[in-house]
Amino acid sequence: MSDSEEAVTAEEQPSTVPAGIAAARAALADVPAEPGVPKLDPILNATGVRRAFGGLVAVDVAHLEVQRGAITALIGPNGAGKTTFFNLLTGFDRPNRGEWVFDGRRADRMRSYQVARAGMVRTFQLTKALTRMTVMDNMLIGAADQVGEGFWAGLVHPLWKRQEAANREKALVLLERFKLIDKRDDYAGELSGGQRKLLEMARALMLNPRMVMLDEPMAGVNPALKQSLLEHIKDLREEGMTVLFVEHDMDMVHEIADWVAVMAAGELITEGTPDQISADRRVIDAYLGAHHDAAER
Amino acid sequence: MDWHFVFSQALTQAIGPTMLVYALAAIGLNLQFGYTGLLNFGQAAFAAMGAYGLAIGVVVLDLPFWWGIGLGLASAVVLALLLGIPTLRLRADYLAIVTIAAAEIVRRTARATGLSEYTGGSDGMRGFSEPFFAMNPYPSEATWTFLFASMDGGRLKLDFLLFDLQYSNRDLWVMTVGWVLVAFFLVLLGLLVRSPWGRVLKGIREDEEAVRSLGKNVFAYKMQALVIGGLIGAVAGFLFALSRANVQPDTFITDFTFYLYVIIILGGAARLFGPVLGAALFWFLYSFLSQGLNQGIRSGAIPEDWLSATQVGPLVFFLVGLSMVLLLIYRPQGILGDRRELTLDVR
């Protein structure tokens, strides 16, 4: 039903702007560019998130809200704490303190698998394809609420036969979309680096996530595939998903992000639209070091 | 040199009671190591739980035979939980360290003098297997001949052209039960590893963080694999104890576990029939080499100053090790494995 609705709204607008991006840009249009700024409809709302490794404070984010249905980029220089923050939000690491609500549910006490079940699915900087399993099995393992994943039910094929067939159908559709359909019976370890990125994204979609967290989706991807990955990420927004991604490549951020959050030394230093961020003195300072101009003189 | 004898002895071992014990324990370990990637280096301890659970239950606690079996299985579950709860959330190597240590703790506890009242100390225990052999349907007094098979006073002889196999009626009973158990667990694991449950285990072996990111409770799956593999190990322990009608602490040394790894790698890890084929080959090779060398010395084919009878044992282990090295060079995936899997680029 929602598909047809979207199709209609897309047709009604004579311009080429798809509905998802239009909605996301509209929701963020009047949001001031300052760190921790409230959003119209945040899917993720985090407060006071702190993680220290011994004496080193890796993450100390006072407040961050992520707009639903938008693509938000999380940028910052190396060691800014982006990936650590990512790991905290997805339950792969535990904060010293901090709380956050994901889609109406407290998520800071959840374990990683519970976060995924709640609808927030992540990918990894170093792609984690299950190499000695086929591409199809990689996809099928992603499906949620599988009856046959219970020990006793797994023994009784008739109990999960239908669900498995439905999951297989769904996987085929996704593999078709991500141009991996011809590879479905190959081992995932036989795929190229870029194809593994595609597989990881497709696999994440098997869970029907509401929010997709991409940790450096463009790292190690050749330019030809980059464009297709970008299109896939844009498609996620058109399907109503929220995307938060960590990235270094400012060109890419410019091309697809609706909103940018900048971290430096563990803190959120500013937020804004890509254009606002590019012009922001603090961002340039964070990347190049605060004293770069002093050194020039 | 009596090749017929050597060959017959090797084949007798390759399908006999001891091979079945190793095959069963390896089936359990294959679920843990082959499918789930759990480095359990203490499968000997799980077998010891079965063997001692049964022996202590029947001899010390005076329980009926089946209660002893139950006690053995329960002990294996308790051991799996004890080992798994602290280590399965940690990196894979922690389980390896903890299990290898636990196996030694179990063995040394069993042979401790202070506990010999309950465990029999280093002498072990006997007197628990009568109920098992009371169920033996193979008569101890029977004499008949049928084609190449003959029964002589409870001793079965199978006499083909190249070999003859001989088993006592007690061996036959142990083998019948053993092969039924092997078949049962192969069917069970065959169903499991082809199910979505088994797919999650394989995923954990490949990358547990990826599986976690897909909403699976990795800890629970690893625990299930550890418990089920351990239970199968305990069943192997029952068969070990019953086939010898005694338990000895030193049969559960770490070598036992290492042989299981040899068997799994030989047969092919994460292959359903790998452990059975591996166990049969391992015991064929082992007894072929030791019987062959012994025969060679006895018949004078191997001069006395080259090799003495007391040196045969160590040399056999050396040769078994050598053949493992050759296997890993020329067929690293094992007999049933898929070479393609090993050439994959694991990034």
UniProtKB/TrEMBL annotation, chain A:
SUPFAM superfamilies in the cross-refs: P-loop containing nucleoside triphosphate hydrolases
SMART domains in UniProt: AAA
A Pfam family reported for this protein in Swiss-Prot or TrEMBL: ABC_tran
Keywords: ATP-binding, Nucleotide-binding, Transport
Annotated ranges, domain ABC transporter: 44-290
UniProt GO MF annotations: ATP binding; ATP hydrolysis activity
UniProt cross-references to InterPro entries, sorted A to Z: AAA+_ATPase, ABC_AA/LPS_Transport, ABC_transporter-like_ATP-bd, ABC_transporter-like_CS, BCA_ABC_TP_C, P-loop_NTPase
GO CC field: plasma membrane
Alphabetical list of PANTHER family matching this protein: CONSERVED COMPONENT OF ABC TRANSPORTER FOR NATURAL AMINO ACIDS, CONSERVED COMPONENT OF ABC TRANSPORTER FOR NATURAL AMINO ACIDS-RELATED
Name used for this protein in its record: ABC transporter ATP-binding protein
Species assigned in the record: Glycomyces paridis
TrEMBL record, chain B:
GO molecular function: branched-chain amino acid transmembrane transporter activity
GO CC list: plasma membrane
Membrane topology listed for this record: Multi-pass membrane protein
Protein name from the UniProt record: Branched-chain amino acid ABC transporter permease
Main location: membrane
Transmembrane segments: 6-31, 38-59, 65-85, 172-193, 223-246, 258-286, 306-330
InterPro entries assigned: ABC_transp_permease, LivM-like
Keywords: Cell membrane, Membrane, Transmembrane, Transmembrane helix
Lineage: Bacteria, Bacillati, Actinomycetota, Actinomycetes, Glycomycetales
PANTHER family: HIGH-AFFINITY BRANCHED-CHAIN AMINO ACID TRANSPORT PROTEIN BRAE, HIGH-AFFINITY BRANCHED-CHAIN AMINO ACID TRANSPORT SYSTEM PERMEASE
Subcellular location field: Cell membrane
Origin superkingdom: Bacteria
